[in-house]
């Protein structure tokens, strides 16, 4: 029986013993060779891919050769960083975002912008690297950008004052990054020097300074600036009272609004002039101010919020340059400023931190800075409105009838922003010297009232005024329950009549002329009041 083809065994020999092969046998052999060759090629290709993947990444991270346009190798880390136009970076490596860098549509990467590196133009939107984030600072309150999906284009904003720091102190220098020119000053638009704005027809030589911190520190900075000016025989240009980080009002007022500078010059012989007398900010263009670094401001630490606000308000860019010695003692500072004795003006970066022997700046200058008549009249009008006027008395020395001012007790109770400082630095029983409670003040007032009114008569009880930044309703109620009146400058209309710094200066008048003053030992605001009490009225302040 014939076998079915489906189950018939193969009759073709795999390796024929004869010298000839059939046609089907040769085709089978060719196919097998092709398959073997393809497999060998596949294995070799895979091996080469693995080899290049391993060796390629190693050479990318270790190669020291140039990486091509738009890239450079970091000097310390094995990474690749996108190059930037060095003209668009400041000495700290941060991007400047001045308004002139942005084109009209508010975008800083548009075609035709002079601030865009031509080598960057070939990047597409996915390849372009993200810009370095600007440093956070108190002036601008810059926040890190949101997620890229939500980030908005940069918009035009007002020009900010440029602060250049040119220090020859080797301890503050850092090695330049590989492939980057050793430039510590960025390429920016040059402004006319500050001396060009001064009157060249007179031979007066000036010295000025950058204001620092709050109003009391600015006051002491002015006194120490007077010490430097006197030692150098120069006229002091007094910066105005400038808004600090406490209020951020971005305003300024001349000291002569509150202090009688004409009388001061007559009493002391000091030569001073205010900034607004030499510079009309409404008409002025930007100028470049050259300041010498003192007390480390510009080398060891940056200039503060107040100084930056001053520069911005008065249209000044500043270059901070190191002296031969970065000093704080006044004798050293005056010596290292000697090489600049021919300069029309000298600017120093800080005066508040200057050390004066025996702290003589108050005795020499401070006690002679009396209040203006306008300021005194404002306070007197308030007293006349709220207190009974005393009877007139005859003065035998002047042979005239005098109406004495009303007698009162003043309290300076600093709260608010001061509370956290006190809580961080004064614990336990020391807290009373920094942040005394209303009950602490009340106990001291009882002692003073008993001393000034030994008979205990109701008529002899003196009214109490509280100068404070306290705004908590429960604390203000405590003042009222004790029969005290806190100086509510909103109701008094102080700022409307005297300006933004009027309230603080009115507080100083109340403190200076009080029959008794209770203040805070750790507050410079209280201590200035104590000095006026001592030297103007021969009274001793009651410190808690």
Describe what you observe in this structure.
25% of the residues are buried. The longest helix has 40 residues. The chain is 32% helix and 12% strand. It has 544 residues and is of the alpha/beta class. The N and C termini lie far apart (130 Å). The N terminus is likely disordered. The strands form five sheets. The protein has a seven-stranded parallel beta sheet, with helices on both faces. Strands 16-15-14-17-18 form a five-stranded parallel beta sheet, with helices on both faces. It has a two-stranded antiparallel sheet with strand order 1-2. Helix 2 links the parallel strand 4 and strand 5. Keywords: Carbohydrate metabolism, Endoplasmic reticulum, Fucose metabolism, Membrane, Transferase, Transmembrane, Transmembrane helix. This is GDP-fucose protein O-fucosyltransferase 2.
């Amino acid at each position: 029986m014939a076998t079915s083809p489906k189950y018939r065994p193969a009759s073709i020999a795999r390796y024929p013993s004869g010298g000839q092969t059939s046609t089907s046998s040769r085709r089978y052999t060719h196919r097998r060779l092709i398959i073997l060759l393809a497999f060998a090629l596949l294995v070799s290709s895979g091996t080469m891919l693995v080899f290049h993947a391993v060796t390629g990444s190693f050479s990318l991270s270790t190669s020291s050769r140039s990486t091509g346009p738009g890239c450079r190798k970091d000097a310390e880390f094995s990474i690749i960083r996108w190059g930037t136009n060095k003209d668009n970076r400041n000495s700290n490596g941060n991007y400047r975002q001045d308004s002139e860098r942005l084109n009209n549509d508010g975008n800083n990467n548009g075609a035709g912008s002079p601030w865009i590196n031509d080598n960057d133009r070939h990047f597409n939107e996915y390849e372009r690297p993200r810009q370095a984030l600007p440093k956070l600072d108190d002036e601008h309150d810059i926040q890190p950008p949101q997620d890229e999906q939500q980030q908005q284009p940069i918009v035009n904003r007002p020009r900010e004052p440029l602060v250049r720091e040119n220090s020859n102190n080797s301890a503050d220098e850092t090695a330049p990054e590989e492939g980057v020119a050793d430039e510590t000053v960025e390429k920016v638009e040059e402004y006319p020097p500050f001396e060009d704005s001064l009157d060249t027809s007179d031979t007066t030589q000036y010295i000025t300074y950058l204001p620092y911190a709050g109003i009391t520190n600015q006051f002491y900075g002015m006194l120490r600036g007077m010490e430097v000016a006197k030692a150098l025989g120069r006229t002091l240009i007094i910066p105005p009272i400038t808004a600090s980080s406490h209020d951020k009002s971005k305003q300024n007022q001349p000291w002569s609004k509150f202090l009688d500078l004409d009388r001061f010059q007559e009493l002391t012989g000091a030569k001073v002039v205010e900034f607004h007398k030499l510079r009309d900010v409404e008409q002025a263009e930007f100028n470049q101010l050259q300041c010498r670094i003192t007390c480390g401001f510009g080398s060891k630490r940056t200039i503060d919020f107040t100084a930056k606000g001053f520069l911005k308000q008065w249209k000044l860019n500043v270059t901070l340059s190191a002296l031969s010695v970065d000093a704080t003692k006044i004798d050293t500072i005056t010596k290292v400023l000697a090489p600049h004795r021919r300069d029309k003006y000298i600017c120093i970066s800080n005066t508040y931190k200057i050390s004066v022997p025996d702290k003589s700046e108050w005795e020499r200058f401070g006690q002679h800075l009396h209040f203006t008549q306008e300021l005194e009249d404002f306070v007197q009008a308030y007293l006349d409105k709220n207190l009974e006027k005393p009877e007139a008395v005859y003065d035998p020395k002047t042979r005239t009838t005098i109406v004495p001012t009303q007698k009162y007790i003043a309290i300076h109770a600093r709260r608010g922003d001061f509370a956290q400082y006190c809580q961080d630095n004064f614990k336990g029983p020391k807290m009373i010297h920094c942040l005394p409670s209303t009950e602490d003040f009340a106990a001291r007032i009882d002692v003073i009232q008993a001393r000034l009114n030994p008979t205990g008569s109701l008529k002899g009880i003196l009214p109490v005024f509280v100068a404070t930044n306290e705004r908590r309703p429960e604390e203000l109620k405590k003042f009222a329950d004790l029969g005290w009146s806190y100086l509510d400058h909103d109701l008094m209309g102080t700022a409307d009549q005297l300006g933004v710094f009027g309230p603080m200066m009115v507080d100083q008048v109340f403190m200076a002329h009080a029959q008794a003053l209770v203040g805070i030992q750790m507050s410079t605001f209280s201590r200035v009041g104590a000095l006026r009490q001592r030297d103007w009225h021969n009274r001793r302040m009651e410190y808690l």
